[in-house]
Amino acid sequence: MSDLNQTNSPADENVDAFSLENIIEKFIFNSRWILSIFYLFLVLTLVLVAIKFLHEFQHFALNFWEDSEAKFLTGVLSLVDKTLLANLLLLVIFSGYENFVSVIGVARRSADRPKWMGGVDFASLKLKLIGSIVALSGINLLAAFLEIETTDKVDLAWQIGLHVVFLFTGVLFALSEKIASSAESHH
User: Fold this and answer.
1) Is 6 helix (H, G, I), strand (E, B) or coil?
2) Could you write out the three-class secondary structure of 38-107?
3) How far is CA 160 from the centre of its chain?
4) CA–CA separation, 65 vs 69, rounded Å?
């Protein structure tokens, strides 16, 4: 008789529960909880970004009357930069935890649950990550252009080159995901 036609009785399941294969598989499956350490420390990193944001805001607020227009805009861009970084961290924490560790149960019951939560798969996370990197790079590049007189031209060339690489990588990621999803929908 084939294995497909056999049904396991409760006694067979108890024997299987203590098989070496089952123990190894449970150990491997539960090892995903090790990732929770990474996400907890990313939350602490988010706190550090918030502290850095407050420090930069204090400096920005105390000096904005004396600063030139370029320095003022650079200060605003720096605050936007930290905000985008914080958003990126939160996205990685939530979607990474839900994709690789466990569903965040308290969020499911919350009226404040972000709409995107639970809907960002690994492919979407990669695209959002590269998009955020491009945005952060663009903000830093714009800040360098606003202070072009004091910006080292070699550093500026490197920033432009890196930004172009990030853009190219983002386009390649987006195209590869589009091709992969279109191939999956045809099968």
Assistant:
1) coil
2) HHHHHHHHHHHHHHHHHHHHHHHHHHCCCCCHHHHHHHHHHHHHHHHHHHHHHHHHHHHHHHHCCCCHHH
3) 23
4) 10
Question: What are the boundaries of each domain within the chain?
Answer: 11-186
Q: Which helix (H) or strand (E) holds 139?
A: helix 122-146
Residue 2 DSSP SS3: coil
| Contact status, residue 169 vs residue 130, Cβ threshold 8 Å | yes
Q: Which residue type is seen at 137? A: S
Q: How far apart are CA 7 and CA 69, in angstroms?
A: 76
Location of structure tokens 């996205």: 91
Q: What is the C-alpha separation between 38 and 46, in angstroms, rounded?
A: 12
What pLDDT, on a 0 to 100 scale, did the predictor assign at position 13? 55
Q: What is the pLDDT of residue 3?
A: 47
Question: Using one digit for the tens of pLDDT, what is the confidence trace for 46-64?
Answer: 999 999 999 999 999 999 8
Q: Tokens at residue 25, please? A: 């598989």
Q: What's the pTM value of the predicted model, to 2 decimals? A: 0.73
Residue owning tokens 């080292």 = 152
